[in-house]
Specification:
Blueprint: H1 3-12, H2 28-43, E1 56-61, H3 69-82, E2 87-91, E3 102-103, H4 113-116, H5 118-126, E4 132-134, H6 138-147, E5 152-156, E6 168-174, E7 202-206, H7 215-223, E8 232-246, E9 249-252, E10 262-267, H8 272-282, E11 285-291, H9 300-313, E12 317-319, H10 322-326, E13 338-347, H11 350-361, E14 364-369, H12 372-388, E15 393-398, H13 404-408, E16 412-413, H14 430-439, H15 441-454, E17 463-466, H16 468-478, E18 483-486, H17 498-507, E19 510-512, H18 516-524, E20 529-530, E21 555-560, H19 567-584, E22 587-591, H20 599-603, E23 610-611, E24 617-619, E25 624-627, H21 632-636, E26 641-644, H22 648-655, E27 660-663, H23 666-675, E28 679-682, H24 686-698, H25 700-714, H26 719-729, H27 733-751
Parallel strand pairs: 1-5, 1-6, 2-4, 2-5, 6-7, 7-8, 10-11, 10-12, 12-13, 14-15, 14-17, 15-16, 17-18, 18-19, 19-20, 21-22, 21-26, 22-25, 26-27, 27-28
Antiparallel strand pairs: 3-4, 8-9, 8-13, 23-24, 24-25
Helix pairs in contact: 11-27, 12-26, 15-16, 16-17, 19-24, 22-25
Length: 752
């Protein structure tokens, strides 16, 4: 190691207070700003974050220098093996040749230092039954581990590697030199400011038994503003055994052996001081020290120089670390023996440490939706996820309303309520938008943004039920590429803008379209898109067997006042229509109010109509309307006509072959492009609505053609089932659940 580098490291580690290197102090603010910007870009989805296919444990640090990442990675792999779980390792491989992902041992090339790197070779040697993969692209490395049959990926030096999502972020701090001089590169040894520790799930203070008394408490106090106390653990470094390396080969020495004599200590690791202190504590006689920069590969000429130095100084041999051994020629030509201490990590509270890993390994999935119809579809998806992934936490985040459909079904809603006069952020009427703005739309959006950001890193690949703007919102808050279950955008409406296609192409895992034509168009533009059915029609899964039986008399008319607040006004229009239609023909009427609508509030100001005490019947002098609180699909079976002012519910009924009558307005005109011949739009007048309904019911040919058009235009069911299958197999969610359950059961067995 050169004098200049030694001088710089001495300053960066805080060993020298006064140094010419202090002129670098202002430079750290550039690094600080760049790291903050970079992390922010990943967290907001501007830079791509991809979820790996296996549960991933990231081992990293926030400083350069040895923090015992390699022994800790080995410890993690071994403790998973004890639980009967196959864990593999992924390493970038320091200063290796560019190559596709490879696992050490797959061929002769994979065992060479220039292809594999020193630490991966060392780990492969110490863990012969473990697959160790070397890959610059960590995501591809994890994929290779999965292909090799591994169930968990342990990734080395990935705290700052934000391209890859992770389940557990373990950050190591060297107790002998925790934060250097406290400054950020290049003015110090810190890679990021102290605030970066907030991202850590677990912090381990390594080499605690080599640190000065009281050092551990001082470090914890320094970390206190950023890391909760129960996330901080302490670990010692312990000697397992000594190995003797000679030209004849490697020999494991008996327990209790200690090299006697005077030796030349050779080190090319991140923190050589810790190694020298270790030798001193063990009572090993060190005649001379030879320090090289980290990962330095010793040449035959340098070994010859060391041999000559031993001859000159009368040293009995050499001592180096296991990592240094990987950086020496395979055929050693040293004239004196080389001793290597094999070390391991020892946690102070190993069970609590493993429990903390288990907490983070529990799969957590987030379903997001941005509308009342989307909430209904999202609910079906969430129920399917709960049924498939029984051990997982399934939460919902709604961007419109309070998420009542989810909460009524026992699914936790993690978003703040967003109740607006319009019932949501609408693009059809500017007057509604202005009303929402006066009501606090901006404040509501900020609350949602802040809440979404507070959930960063808590969930795997998010599932978005809605449109491209929902995907963008989730991506902005979570950073990780989501899946989009599209419910609105289609070529049958206005299609997708180029910016929408760019976003879907670059920042979505997969798009599930609502029709085959849209899927073909998106795929043609490079968007990962598929079609397996219309997610709207999967609302039928809410009702395996119809929960409502229609009466036998008269035409069966279904009434849907809609889910937005305007339903409180539209109820009069619907009931006036009912009165006119009942005067023309015998009918049975059933109304299904949305879960977001208060039926008592809706009917309290109606003239000539009363609501029964139990809320199941709305009646006037001559007419009775049954009020049903089952899902729309439960009542739709058997209906002959829908008078509906809803959105998604109208589409569902049309897909079941029920002719739809609705009113002319901007939103319904857009919907008409989807329903086409299955729907008739008329002015918002009772006379027009009743006349259209009577015409359809009186003309069997018209009614039959509308039924056929609805079933053809809305398509089939099955999309959401395929989404769950994709998550289970392609995203590895089945593996995540299996690993968590086995690891949980293993830890429970340790406590018995």
């Amino acid at each position: 190691m050169s004098k200049i580098l030694r001088s710089y490291l001495k300053y960066a580690r805080g060993e020298s207070r006064f140094s010419p290197w202090s002129l670098l102090y202002p430079c750290q603010f550039v690094t600080h700003a760049w790291m903050k910007l970079r992390i922010g870009l990943f967290n907001r989805g501007i830079f791509s974050v991809t979820d790996p296919i296996l549960p991933t444990i990231s081992i990293g640090n926030n400083s350069f220098g040895g923090t015992n990442k390699t022994p800790m990675a080995e410890y993690i792999v071994r403790q998973f093996a004890e639980a009967g779980i196959k864990a593999g390792l992924v390493s970038r491989g320091y200063r290796t040749k560019e190559h596709p992902p490879l696992w050490i041992g797959q061929d002769g090339k994979s065992t060479r230092r220039d292809f594999a790197g020193d630490e991966p070779l060392m780990l492969a040697k110490r863990l012969p039954d473990t697959k160790v993969v070397v890959s610059r692209n960590r995501i591809e490395g994890v994929k290779l581990l999965a292909a090799l049959g591994m169930e968990v990926a342990v990734t080395d030096d990935t705290f700052q590697h934000r391209k890859m999502g992770r389940d557990v972020d373990i950050v190591l701090v060297d107790s002998t030199c925790p934060f250097g001089n406290g400054q950020v590169i290049p003015a110090g040894s810190m890679r990021e400011p102290m605030s970066a520790f907030r991202r850590a799930d677990i912090v381990v203070l390594t080499k605690a038994n080599q640190a000065a008394p009281g050092a551990g408490e001082a470090i914890k106090k320094r970390l206190a503003p950023y890391v909760e106390p129960d996330k901080i653990f302490t670990a010692d470094i312990k000697l397992e055994r000594w190995m003797e390396i000679t030209p004849k080969g490697e020999k494991k020495l008996p327990e209790g052996f200690l090299p006697r004599g005077r030796y030349i200590a050779v080190s090319a690791i991140g923190n050589p001081g810790g190694f020298y202190n270790f030798l001193e504590e063990m009572g090993v006689g060190v005649a001379l020290r030879r320090t090289y920069r980290d990962h330095h590969i010793l040449t035959k000429e340098e070994l010859a120089e060391l041999d000559a130095l031993a001859e000159e100084s009368g040293a009995d041999g050499f001592i180096c670390t296991e990592k240094d051994l990987m950086n020496m020629p395979r055929e050693l030509s040293l004239s004196r023996p080389l001793y290597v201490p094999s070390i391991a990590v020892s946690l102070h509270d190993p069970l609590a440490f493993r429990k903390k890993i288990m907490e983070r390994l529990r799969p957590a999935f987030l379903v997001t939706s941005n509308g009342h119809g989307e909430d209904a579809i999202g609910l079906v998806l969430a129920k399917k996820l709960i049924e498939r992934f029984k051990c997982a936490q399934i939460d919902a985040f709604t961007f419109v309303g309070s998420g009542k459909p989810y909460s009524l079904n026992g699914i936790r809603v993690v978003s703040p309520p967003a109740e607006m006069p319009s019932g949501g952020v609408v693009k059809y009427h500017l007057t509604d938008l202005f009303r929402d703005l006066r009501h606090g739309l901006g404040r509501s959006i900020r609350k949602q943004r802040d809440r979404m950001r507070s959930l960063l890193g808590k969930y795997r690949t998010p599932l978005c039920v809605g449109d491209v703007y929902l995907l963008a919102s989730v991506l902005w808050g979570q950073g990780m590429k989501p899946i989009l279950v599209a419910t609105a955008k289609t070529v049958h409406l206005s299609g997708h803008l180029w910016i929408e296609k760019w976003l879907l192409r670059r920042r979505s895992v997969l798009v599930w379209t609502r029709d085959e034509e849209t899927a073909r168009e998106l795929v043609g533009d490079g968007v990962p898109a598929v079609f397996y059915g219309n997610p709207v029609m999967d609302l039928l899964d809410e009702v395996k067997n119809p929960a409502f039986v229609w009466g036998e008399r008269g035409a069966k008319i279904l009434l849907l006042p809609g889910s937005r607040p305007r339903a409180y006004e539209d109820i009069k229009l619907i009931l006036d229509t009912v009165s006119l239609l009942a005067a023309k023909m015998e009918c049975s009427f059933v109304m299904v109010p949305a879960p977001t609508i208060d039926i008592k509030k809706m009917t309290e100001n109606l003239v000539g109509w009363e609501l029964s005490e139990d809320g199941t019947e709305l009646f006037s002098k001559e007419i009775s309307v049954t009020v049903c609180y089952e899902p729309v699909a439960a009542v739709a079976y058997g209906a002959e006509l829908l008078i509906g002012l809803g959105g998604t519910a109208n589409q569902l009924c049309a897909g079941l072959g029920i002719p739809v009558v609705s009113i002319i307005e901007r939103g319904k005109l857009r919907q008409k492009k989807l329903l086409r011949e299955a729907e008739i739009l008329v002015p918002a007048e009772p006379e027009a609505l009743s006349e259209a309904a009577w015409t359809i019911l009186s003309d069997n040919k018209l009614r039959r053609s509308m039924q056929e058009a609805g079933m053809k235009n809305l398509g089939r069911t099955g999309a959401l089932e395929k989404v769950v299958e994709y998550c289970a197999e392609e995203l590895g969610w089945d593996t995540r659940c299996r690993v968590y359950e086995r690891y949980r059961d293993y830890l429970e067995s340790l406590e018995k």
